[in-house]
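From the thread on structure requests for the teaching lab: each student submitted one protein with a one-line request. Submission from student K.M.:

"Model Catalase from Chungangia koreensis, tokens only."
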Amino acid sequence: MTENFNVNEASKDKQLEQYRADDQGEKLTTNQGLRVSEDEHSLKAGVRGPTLMEDFHFREKMTHFDHERIPERVVHARGFAAHGHFELYESMAPFTKAKFLQEPGSKTPVFVRFSTVAGSRGSAETVRDVRGFATKFYTEEGNFDLVGNNIPVFFIQDAIKFPDLIHAVKPEPHNEMPQAASAHDTFWDFVANNQETAHMIMWHLSDRAIPRSFRMMEGFGVHTFRFVNEEGRAHFIKFHWKPVIGVHSLVWDEAQKISGNDPDFLRRDLWENIDKGNFPEYELGVQILPEEEEFKFDFDVLDPTKIWPEEIVPVKLIGKMTLNRNVDNVFAEIEQVAFHPGHVVPGIDFTNDPLLQGRLFSYTDTQLIRLGGPNFHELPINRPVCPFHNNQRDGYGRQTINVGQVSYHQNSLAGNTPSPANPEEGGYVHYEEKVEGRKVRARSESFNDFFSQAKLFYNSMSEAEKKHIIDAFSFELGKCKSKDVRQQVVEMFGNVDTEMATSVAKKIGVKPPSSTQVNVTMSSPALSQSNTKKSPETRKVGVIVGNGYNSGEVDKVLNALKAAKVQPEIIGEMQGMVESVDGSKLEIEQTFSTTNPVLYDGLYVVGGDAEQPEMFRQQVLYFIEETYKHYKTIGISSNWATVIDRFTNEEPGVVLAHDLPEFTNKFLDSIAEYRHWDRMGY
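Reply posted by the TA:
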């Protein structure tokens, strides 16, 4: 059997503890431990003379600085992460022998990195893009990396086309523009000439591509994997992460404005909520399919551009992940973490998905160039919790001090250790799939339906979501300089929905499509965010307060918001305290110049006495207009309901404080609803 030891959050924290450095109160030294007497001036020949080569302290300090940066990831460069644990609901023993999926209630430490795909490290976070959702499980059998996205399908079917996709979506090489955006000619030229992208494009142009928070987006393994149990029986599976507080998104105008107001919006949201104890939670679900049912559907289960509709293959929730600790150092943990879909444990195996097969090569190759050599697994964030033993030696960044003279397998000098483990001892054995066929460069005919599931996705959207997709097409293609590319894309998506493509064509100045849409009437309600969980928990509400406010009303509302786990933030004209009519005070946390309405999920306008300066009133009206335009909740206190004549009667998402208990409940219900699409007659 494998070595017996306890794997939990504490064990991973203890392992990381030995690498943490707390320099508070310590004397300054060189990297060799030599105490430094002065760190302001380099060693010179006289106070106005040249610097001397013998200044080893200057050289060490400057050399380290010159080498502080490593190559950023080609994709997923802009990311953020957190620590946590995964707790199992029920045993998966009938399906897999993976030990971390055996004992209900068992906890496995995890590290999760969220990211955008196209932009560089310095790009904004609320751009329209796929989001990476990569989870490292530190299990007792080794690390298992579930390296996925917030969209369950991908642009291409074969990994050999991945460089072409990324070259197309990255900034165009002749002028290095635009950054972190797909609204340009080369990307849409690629789409029009690689029509397997159709399904992914529908997701990419939907609200899913501009999530409100990392805490409010789904994650998917994308590929079809295998579970293999102790008896060697295999099932096809797909992995799903379901956020406990539901799936919610930004609107496009809001997303663009947030990029300017706070380019760190999503990482700040994750960091602050963990810091406040609002721990993000995601339930892990699996779709399980017996191998004998591989060919029962009208799509290929190995095609990475296809979903298994949840109404056909239900998602079984098997556990919950909680993120409860922020990182100590962004570079050491977030930048140096190395994920790889090939990091699996016994009981989890691969399939012949051609995109997955290519990723199994590419990720190791990427880590070698980014992290300087083959020993990236020894960096603290990447080290497995369990021991590891092999005959690998040396190389850049080696930390292990190997002892003994033997570094090869099949030996007598060391008793042939380390020795292979048989399956009963936890040794990994690949699933014995029968494989035969001619060597060909080809694609299975079963992969050739590009439009049916794109139509299924569109059928599943609410009217508001459909309008957003049309608007997104119009924006993206409207940025393309080539009218021919625009026309090609419209023609392509006429195969998905003629009415949608015709609406887009009208907006971007090209001809309506001549193509005929596929005959698909099925929908999948699970795909629409209109059916997600809705709760006021962790919503951030801006509270605008001025001198002379009604503290009796405001205190009750603020207490009710906090009791519902809503996060109010007090906004005023200037830093300091504002005073109510009865002399009580509130501290201003943000001013009109340090914040913006797009950074909040709702607005509570308290105001103050009617004698507020005109500039104050103008700022309040600006906050109201922006919040209203983005379909979010607005609550207006009783003493300002008459001052603000923008609303004479309540309308969707606008709550006026006539009766306090009723106002509070209606305001919370409205915040939970989040967007009020019926303002525009959807």
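TA comment: The chain is about 25% helix and 15% strand. The first strand starts at residue 79 and ends at 88.
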